[in-house]
């Protein structure tokens, strides 16, 4: 099960499993996109390796087999599918509970106390909707990334 470090509404860190209903820090999205870039590069490298193995004579044939490359491609596909499942889960969580969780964070606790002086009540009602929409768009962007 994919585990992540999250920030709970009271500011403490907690381990949470994929299905938990927390809003992840935006930096987490950057890491996911970076992982997808690495997977894309690895997939391209596997394609190049397979094309080298198809040639009659190539130095790579001494150390690499088609089976080895296919195993690596399988691992790449598995990781990619895990990221896609995780992103779909995050989209679902944001759609179901994102506005409610963010509204609670803006209203309660030390953050809520500070924001009462900064935002009007109307802004505190509108902001969670805007943020949840942005979060949904960002996680949906991960679903648009193709491996090949």
Report on the biggest sheet: 2 strands, antiparallel
Give the distance, in angstroms, between the N- and C-terminal Cα atoms.
25 Å
Question: Cα-atom Rg, whole angstroms?
Answer: 21 Å
Gross morphology is: rod-shaped
Give, in order, the helices and strands.
Answer: EEHHHH
Classify the helix fraction into a percent range.
Answer: over 70%
Low-pLDDT runs of 5+ residues are 1-19
Features:
single chain; 148 residues; mainly alpha; two-stranded antiparallel sheet; 4 helices; 71% helix; rod-shaped; disordered N terminus
Task: Provide structural commentary.
With 148 residues, the chain is mainly alpha-helical. The protein has one domain. It contains four helices and two strands. The longest helix is centred in the middle third of the chain and has 42 residues. The two termini are 25 Å apart. 14% of the residues are buried. The N terminus is likely disordered.
TL;DR?
The chain has helices at 26-54, 66-107, 109-118, 121-144, and strands at residues 3-7, 13-17.
């Amino acid at each position: 099960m994919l585990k992540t470090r999250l920030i709970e509404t009271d500011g403490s860190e907690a381990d949470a499993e994929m299905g938990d209903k927390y809003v992840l820090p935006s930096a987490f999205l950057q890491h996911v996109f970076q992982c997808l870039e690495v997977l894309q590069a690895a997939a391209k490298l596997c394609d190049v390796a397979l094309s080298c193995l198809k040639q009659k004579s190539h130095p790579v044939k001494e150390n690499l087999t088609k089976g080895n490359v296919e195993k690596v491609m399988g691992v790449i596909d598995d990781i990619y599918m895990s990221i896609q499942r995780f992103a779909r889960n995050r989209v679902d969580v944001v759609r179901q509970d994102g506005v409610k969780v963010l509204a609670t964070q803006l209203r309660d606790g030390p953050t809520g106390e500070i924001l009462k002086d900064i935002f009007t009540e109307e802004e505190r009602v509108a902001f969670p909707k805007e943020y949840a929409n942005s979060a949904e768009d960002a996680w949906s962007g991960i679903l648009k990334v193709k491996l090949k």
